[in-house]
UniProtKB/TrEMBL annotation:
<keyword id="KW-0808">Transferase</keyword>
<dbReference type="Pfam" id="PF00202">
    <property type="entry name" value="Aminotran_3"/>
</dbReference>
<comment type="similarity">
    <text>Belongs to the class-III pyridoxal-phosphate-dependent aminotransferase family.</text>
</comment>
<keyword id="KW-0032">Aminotransferase</keyword>
<dbReference type="InterPro" id="IPR005814">
    <property type="entry name" value="Aminotrans_3"/>
</dbReference>
<dbReference type="GO" id="GO:0009450">
    <property type="term" value="P:gamma-aminobutyric acid catabolic process"/>
</dbReference>
<comment type="subunit">
    <text>Homodimer and homotetramer.</text>
</comment>
<dbReference type="GO" id="GO:0034386">
    <property type="term" value="F:4-aminobutyrate:2-oxoglutarate transaminase activity"/>
</dbReference>
<dbReference type="GO" id="GO:0005739">
    <property type="term" value="C:mitochondrion"/>
</dbReference>
<dbReference type="InterPro" id="IPR004631">
    <property type="entry name" value="4NH2But_aminotransferase_euk"/>
</dbReference>
<keyword id="KW-0663">Pyridoxal phosphate</keyword>
<dbReference type="InterPro" id="IPR015424">
    <property type="entry name" value="PyrdxlP-dep_Trfase"/>
</dbReference>
<dbReference type="InterPro" id="IPR049704">
    <property type="entry name" value="Aminotrans_3_PPA_site"/>
</dbReference>
<dbReference type="InterPro" id="IPR015422">
    <property type="entry name" value="PyrdxlP-dep_Trfase_small"/>
</dbReference>
<dbReference type="GO" id="GO:0030170">
    <property type="term" value="F:pyridoxal phosphate binding"/>
</dbReference>
<dbReference type="InterPro" id="IPR015421">
    <property type="entry name" value="PyrdxlP-dep_Trfase_major"/>
</dbReference>
<protein>
    <recommendedName>
        <fullName>4-aminobutyrate aminotransferase</fullName>
        <ecNumber>2.6.1.19</ecNumber>
    </recommendedName>
</protein>
């Protein structure tokens, strides 16, 4: 019996779509009502989560889709997972939900145990955690930690703040409000809040109309595929981008205190950074005293064939901060240097300091991933699926350009010639029962749950074989 069969004995054996359009009439009616009180314009359809099971999501019209998008990569174990339902029904969860504690001031007696379960799954080299509310919040909290750490190195960790600092910060001016920058990369996505918006550079719609910090965007490598046939060109591309990074650090008009990077840029087009590039960034950040932040919000928790994607790069020494959210159903950052804990209380603080209810689920997810060997399964299934897609690429090269994600679990993507063709493919895949997402202007990205198996890959590939010739 497979993992999926043990979790989901009643999972559908195949997709089924009865409506001629998506969203169907019932979804359209629901969305019209929802639209009166909530912005429903981005909705694909209205989901029926009670009927959704395993790797299949069901909509209000009772269409059943094989889900290769998984709530924008945030469902780790499939829908209605029995182990997570058990965790949700625990007395510990009831206390967390009914009496949600202000963790900074009134931590519960459960908190040490909850955090210890999360830290079991921390990236290599990290042994401390700070919790947040979302991926964007995790990144903004990491920026705060980086700025305080950077200034403490200049001032001295235990040195008291000067009267001038205390007075000027109330006017948002120097020296209490220092001019510091976070470097990110073109095509990056790190969130939609103010600081996270300033490091996001994927689509204009993410950040139009709100003020931004004067922070630099370096160039993320653009590789030629297949990788094994283009090693020399891709190494030259890495070196070109590394030079830009170092030039920006040394020339930017305000000090660059931190650098943030996704090991695979997801929203920006599923662009993969090489082991060489990620390690060289570590060398550059150490050389210039820049805090190195890895954003694992979308890439974390097993989907790339490692629990944390940047572990493929074996970066030494360990990066400073690793942010997480999505598949962990919780959010925050891991770290190891105690000097990232601010020198005074209330500096990294808010009412809830995260959410213990979500941390409980995160711990349960991590334990299931380990106990059921789901990272290894994802690596195996990803290799299987990639091989099938390579065969389709040989048959339809026009529609499978820059196929990427080999040996990266199910974190697979490819490009179509135009945005219209990409959108047409996604639409027709849904009409044939496969819920798949896009990214950037013309990319298709696969983000199934870790319970996705070879039988699901076969269904998806058979659907592609039907749909692609009709483009």
């Amino acid at each position: 019996m497979t993992v999926c069969e043990s979790y989901y004995p009643s999972e559908p054996t195949k997709p089924s779509v009865a409506t001629s359009s998506i969203p169907g009439p019932k979804s359209q009616k629901e969305l019209a009502e929802l639209g009166k009180v909530f912005d429903a314009r981005p909705a694909y359809f209205v989901a029926d989560y009670e009927k959704s099971v395993g790797n299949y999501i069901v909509d209000a019209d009772e269409n059943v889709y094989l889900d290769l998008y998984a709530q924008i990569s945030s469902i780790a174990l499939g829908y209605n997972n029995p182990s997570l339902i058990k965790a949700a029904q625990s007395p510990e969860m009831i206390r967390a939900l009914v009496d949600r504690p202000a963790l900074g001031n009134f931590p519960s007696k459960d908190l040490t145990g909850i955090l210890s379960k999360l830290l079991k799954f921390a990236p290599k080299g990290q042994d401390k955690i700070w919790s947040g509310l979302s991926g964007a919040d995790a990144n903004e909290l990491a920026f705060k930690a980086a700025f305080m750490y950077y200034r403490s190195k200049q001032r001295g960790y235990s040195t008291e703040f000067s009267a001038e600092e205390n007075e000027s910060v109330m006017e948002n001016s120097l020296p209490g409000s220092p001019h510091l920058a976070v470097m990110s990369f073109k095509r990056a996505f790190h969130g939609r809040l103010f600081a996270s918006g300033s490091v996001t550079c994927s689509k204009p719609i993410h950040k139009l109309d709100f003020p931004a910090f004067n922070w630099p965007h370096a160039e993320y490598p653009s590789y030629q595929f297949p990788l094994e046939a283009n090693e020399e060109a891709n190494r030259a591309e890495d070196d070109r981008c590394l030079k830009i990074v170092e030039d920006l650090i040394t020339s930017w008009p305000i000090p660059v205190a931190a650098l943030i990077i996704e090991p695979i840029q997801s929203e920006g087009g599923d662009n993969h950074a090489s082991k060489y590039f990620l390690q060289k960034l570590r060398d550059v950040t150490l050389k210039h005293g820049v805090v190195y932040i890895i954003d694992e919000v979308q890439t974390g928790v097993g989907a790339t064939g490692k629990f944390w994607c940047h572990e493929w790069a074996e970066i030494t020494p360990a990066v400073d901060l690793v942010t997480f959210s999505k598949k962990f159903q919780s959010a925050g950052y891991f770290f190891h240097d105690p000097e990232f804990i601010p020198n005074k209380a209330y500096r990294q603080f808010n009412t809830w300091c995260g959410d213990p209810a979500r941390m409980i689920i995160a711990g349960a997810i991590g334990q299931e991933v380990v106990d059921k060997s789901l990272v290894e399964q994802c690596a195996r299934v990803g290799d299987y699926l990639f091989g099938k897609l390579e065969a389709l690429q040989s048959q339809y090269p026009k529609y499978f350009q820059n196929l990427r994600g080999k040996k990266r679990g199910t974190f697979i993507a490819w490009d179509l010639p135009t945005t219209d063709l990409r959108d047409s493919l996604l639409k027709n895949l849904k009409l044939n029962g496969c819920n798949v997402g896009g990214c950037a202007e013309k990319s298709v990205r696969l983000r199934p749950a870790l319970t996705f198996e070879e039988k699901h890959a076969d269904i998806f590939v058979d659907t592609l074989k039907k749909v692609v010739p009709q483009l």
